[in-house]
Automatic annotation (TrEMBL):
InterPro entries for the chain: Acyl_CoA_acyltransferase (IPR016181), Bact_Acetyltransf (IPR050832), GNAT_dom (IPR000182)
SUPFAM superfamilies per the UniProt record, alphabetical: Acyl-CoA N-acyltransferases (Nat)
Domain N-acetyltransferase residues, every copy: 1-146
Gene3D superfamilies recorded: 3.40.630.30
Name of the protein: GNAT family N-acetyltransferase
GO MF annotation terms: acyltransferase activity, transferring groups other than amino-acyl groups
Organism: Virgibacillus necropolis
PANTHER family: AMINOALKYLPHOSPHONATE N-ACETYLTRANSFERASE-RELATED, AMINOALKYLPHOSPHONATE N-ACETYLTRANSFERASE-RELATED-RELATED
Keywords, ordered alphabetically: Acyltransferase, Transferase
Amino acid sequence: MSIQKATLKDYETLSELFDLYRVFYEQKSNPEGARDFIKERLNNEESVAFIALDENDPIGFVQLYPSFSSVSMKRTWVLNDLYVKEKARGKGFGEKLLKKTITFAEGTGAIGVSLETGKDNLTAQRLYERVGFKRETNYFYDFSIG
């Protein structure tokens, strides 16, 4: 098991995982759209992604977006996407990706990492809590347009 930071040369591999992630969240498969989206994020340095490999088989990824806290005047990261292929779940890949995320965020001087997950995604919630994430209940934070 290894975790590597995705570069532009990894966009095809990452986009395949990203498309599977979207399908998991009940979106229609769109390989071309996934390739374009991932390539643009990496090309413009708008996100940071890590790919989990089992030997040389890409089995999961995490994607982070930069943000900032005005109050602390420091960087934060938004963990927007975490996915592990079904065949590899329960083997520690998700936890390794999260720990890599935390190490990366600390290395950038960030004050934290935030994420959202569905209320019914209890498996993910247990994983997040196991590595140190805490449930937030004090703030309003959701507004959807369209």
